[in-house]
Fold this protein.
Amino acid sequence: MIIREIQAKSILSASKIYPYVINPYVGCQHACSYCYARYMKKFTGHKEPWGTFVDVKINAAELLRKEICKKKKATVWVSGVCDPYQPLEKKYELTRQCLQILAREEWPVVIQTRSPLILRDVDILKEAKNVEVGFSITTADDGIRKLFEPGAPPIPERLNALSELHRLGVRTYAMVAPILPGSEMLVDRLAGVVDYILVDRMNYHHADFIYRKYGLEEKMTEEYFLRVSRQITSDCCRLGIECTTVF
Ligand code: SF4
């Protein structure tokens, strides 16, 4: 893993999904095979394979303290093109420092992660006025998770973290995206630990080689994505969970 500490020029950026996004890192140790964020390589000059490098924006909190005074309060997404709780966060605590600032100023925050490391920061999450936490949970089958998301935490750990956050009164959601083999078995496990579920299909082709290698081609078809999303919607309806399919 190539790790570089860098001085970023800005941290509170405009986003198409939410008004703002904060990415404390460039690159992601989770190394998901389908990750759309690998396009960041083009803008940052990285030639290394995705998942083998991380730039650490060590001045993230310092920048945020300055930028937050100059911008209009609105929802901040943490993060868009990296996992804010990838393993390096344990050492650098950049996400933690940024959350402290956002919570103190009472800015709405939506955190999206695959890592139970977020539980380290429950002290902030419990006190924050307007925060929700989403876990990306793509499949109920941890064997499939290992094929597609080799560096990301196991599915049972993500479910346990969601359960703990929900128990503490934090608003939670699951992002079942991209739909992977085994997504259709998720809803029963998410019942009681999330306030809502979002579903999206695989929109990128970076992981096609894995489908081919393991004979999973029929699970990357339009027909499969539609069938699974209908199954998830129907299970959510049965269990009274709010569900939105975004494709
Ligand atoms: S956790 Fe998110 S940002 Fe990181 S590699 Fe996976 S999909 Fe990409």
Notes: Residues 28, 30-32, 35, 37, 82-83, 114, 152 surround iron/sulfur cluster (CB under 6 Å). DSSP finds ten helices and eleven strands in the chain.
